[in-house]
Specification:
The protein has 284 residues and is mainly β. Helix content is 12%, strand content 33%.
């Protein structure tokens, strides 16, 4: 097995960037989900309620970002460290740096509502769930964990089920992974407790429950496209109440630092023989 793709998503819910190689640190892939669109009250905003975020192209630039949406563009400079606000993401509060007024006005005009751009800078703090990832594992603005892993074998199986029901097909971009692993076997990752890449151990700590974001085109934000949710409902509905809903991919916590690249070998170093419990549907 090898890494087939690497991605970061500098601004949460905006477009991703493919990489050939990446450092790995305690936060995951440097540059991943280091900024986030928030409402004036600090509550985070994603494609779940604002599909147009999929249309924002992001390129890191001098500590800030070059942003483009259609024919409109702006450079969001690195924020001033002392201009801050508390932002909320799921059940956690993070004290984040805030973009300059011009950037916030421009983004608000693009998105047709008042928003701000929040930065997870060196003074921001957030910790992943101790229950799943263990003590003291830092995380940025990802939904909950440092890295998301998916596999090509599982996407192939999902698309086979979609095709069986004449529901089209979807690409891996719908699931916004950081690491894509090329596999022959579908759903093998359910049995992996830990993998090793380039000498770095990665623990698969929790399966990823999927939401309406997987139904959106990741270039246009349109939901008038093939929908993977019915197939996931048929073959990937969790039977474990701790993680309800349809599952695709695993949340992963790195246990050391290093560097990984597309093409690197992936080794299984620990397994969970019982896998994960799924509901059995009579007609999958």
């Amino acid at each position: 097995m090898r890494i087939s793709d690497l991605f970061i998503y500098p601004i949460k819910s905006a477009r991703g960037i493919p990489l050939e190689t990446s450092e790995i640190d305690a936060f995951g892939l440097p540059g991943d989900r280091r900024a986030m669109i928030v409402a004036p009250d600090g509550n985070f905003i994603t494609q779940r309620e604002m599909p147009a975020l999929a249309r924002i192209d992001v390129r890191p630039e001098s500590g800030g970002y070059h942003l483009q949406m259609g024919d409109r563009e702006i450079v969001a400079p690195a924020p001033e460290a002392d201009v801050r606000m508390d932002v909320s993401i799921w059940k956690t509060i993070v004290n984040a740096a805030v973009a300059d007024d011009e950037t916030n006005r421009e983004l608000s005009a693009w998105l047709e509502r008042d928003v701000k751009l929040a930065f997870f800078d060196r003074d921001a703090r957030r910790i992943a769930s101790v229950e799943w990832a263990g003590e003291g594992t830092p995380v940025t603005f990802a939904d909950g964990y440092q890295i998301l892993v998916t596999t090509t074998g599982s996407l192939k199986a999902l698309n086979a089920n979609l095709a069986q029901h004449e529901e089209g097909s979807v690409g891996m971009e719908r699931f916004r992974p950081n690491l894509v692993i090329d596999t022959e076997e579908a759903w093998a990752e359910d049995r992996w407790a830990a993998i090793e890449i380039a000498g770095i151990r990665f623990d698969l700590v929790k399966p990823c429950a999927r939401c309406i974001m997987t139904t959106q085109d990741q270039i246009t934000g349109s939901r008038d496209v093939p929908n993977p949710m019915p197939a996931m409902g048929r073959i990937r509905m969790s039977a474990d109440r701790r993680v309800p809903g349809p599952l695709f991919g695993w949340n992963v916590t790195p246990r050391s630092n290093g560097k990984i690249s597309v093409g690197d070998t992936v080794k299984i170093v620990e397994e969970r023989p019982e896998g994960w419990a799924f509901k059995i549907r009579a007609r999958a």
